[in-house]
Fold this protein.
Amino acid sequence: MKNTKQRKVVLDIINNSDKHLDAFGVYKLARISISNISLGTVYRNLGSLENEGAIQVIMVDGVKHYDKIIPHYHFVCKKCLKIIDVFDLEIPRLKEYNGNLVDDYEIVLKGICENCQKEDNYGIKRK
Amino acid sequence: MKNTKQRKVVLDIINNSDKHLDAFGVYKLARISISNISLGTVYRNLGSLENEGAIQVIMVDGVKHYDKIIPHYHFVCKKCLKIIDVFDLEIPRLKEYNGNLVDDYEIVLKGICENCQKEDNYGIKRK
DNA sequence: TCCTAAATAGTAATGATTACTATTTAAGTA
DNA sequence: TACTTAAATAGTAATCATTACTATTTAGGA
């Protein structure tokens, strides 16, 4: 594997962001450092970083969002699709189920966020 | 809401299948009953049935798969993408987190299925 | 039977992601 | 330091799941 500047920029963006960026969000930030970086390159690096376990993915509304590797979960608001980090949640995990090797849990809490519970915020999506 | 035959066929397909069909899989089966049913109609009904809580969704590789409402979880093999039902798993659930109302947990176990652990099955996806 | 809003069929459009290809480059080797 | 080469990139085209659109049909109430 080659240690390219594109790869380093993509990884740094994820590790330094407190947002949960999708590929295009990473691309927009990456262009600040490398003005002609290709969107395909961003996708490829996000994919390989995910496979290596260097970053993690959370799926929201059919779109992959990326996050650094810090043990935590996510809450996703069904109305505005906002992603909120969830810490201090203990969930017991199987290592194996019926002969199938389990090495990962994808856990997403879903519901209505505090803001959207106020009735005048109905239906406003902030992606 | 109108009680159309298309809606009934879609719901029956989910409730009578032990597979985890995606929209196109439902469409193919639905055409046996209604030969000119539209793919868009299948999507619309799957979406509304999901919103009403009549069926549930599991996301695999960026594609929605549908399942009946029976309390259980899923294991997804990272290699072949097979979905395996997981019963008898107790996971404690919050009702609320920092003022956010939690009414649903999306939980997917991921790993390598029994079959794919045999080395001669590497890389074969069965979608 | 009539009426009407809702659902449908068929098709086009969208949007995230992947594939393709000529060019560039990281990194090992002489 | 220059050479070599496989891997990565930029730019673009293609794919594919899903949604949007519109004329037509239909469920269900009056």
In short: The radius of gyration of chain A is 17 Å. The beta strands of chain A are 55-60, 63-68, 73-77, 83-86, 96-97, 100-112.
